[in-house]
Amino acid sequence: MTIWVLYDIVNDKARSKAAKRCQQAGLYRVQFSCFLGTLTQNQKDTLQLQLEELINEETDKVYIFPMSRSELQQTVLLGQAFDRKLVTDEIRALFF
């Protein structure tokens, strides 16, 4: 399933760790605190648990939104938006 992860984490160290966990899960960084990618249900649950351990529930916000492939295809992208093909696994790897 396609997953959006958005967060507002006050502590710099916890925020950096959250970004690292998202990247390690295979998500693509869309913006500074916004990640998108395809995960299995088990991978999503694992990431959710990892993020729960990092945040302060009194001050931080984390949103994990599942999205179907058809909904992603209907997404409107303006300006310098992300590469939809990379997020939907149409492109498996980038070569530089």
From TrEMBL:
Keyword vocabulary terms for this entry: Antiviral defense, Endonuclease, Hydrolase, Magnesium, Metal-binding, Nuclease
Highest taxon above the source species: Bacteria
UniProt enzyme class: hydrolase
GO molecular function: hydrolase activity; metal ion binding; RNA endonuclease activity
GO biological process: defense response to virus; maintenance of CRISPR repeat elements
Alphabetized Gene3D superfamilies for the sequence: 3.30.70.240
Names of the cofactor(s): Mg(2+)
SUPFAM superfamilies, sorted: TTP0101/SSO1404-like
InterPro entries named among the record's database cross-references: CRISPR_associated_Cas2, Virulence_VapD/CRISPR_Cas2
Binding site for Mg(2+): 8
E.C. designation(s): 3.1.-.-
Alphabetical list of NCBIfam families matching this protein: cas2
Self-association and partners: Homodimer, forms a heterotetramer with a Cas1 homodimer.
The family this protein is said to belong to: Belongs to the CRISPR-associated endoribonuclease Cas2 protein family.
Function: CRISPR (clustered regularly interspaced short palindromic repeat), is an adaptive immune system that provides protection against mobile genetic elements (viruses, transposable elements and conjugative plasmids). CRISPR clusters contain sequences complementary to antecedent mobile elements and target invading nucleic acids. CRISPR clusters are transcribed and processed into CRISPR RNA (crRNA). Functions as a ssRNA-specific endoribonuclease. Involved in the integration of spacer DNA into the CRISPR cassette.
Protein name: CRISPR-associated endoribonuclease Cas2
Biological source species: Spirosoma montaniterrae
Source species taxonomy: Bacteria, Pseudomonadati, Bacteroidota, Cytophagia, Cytophagales
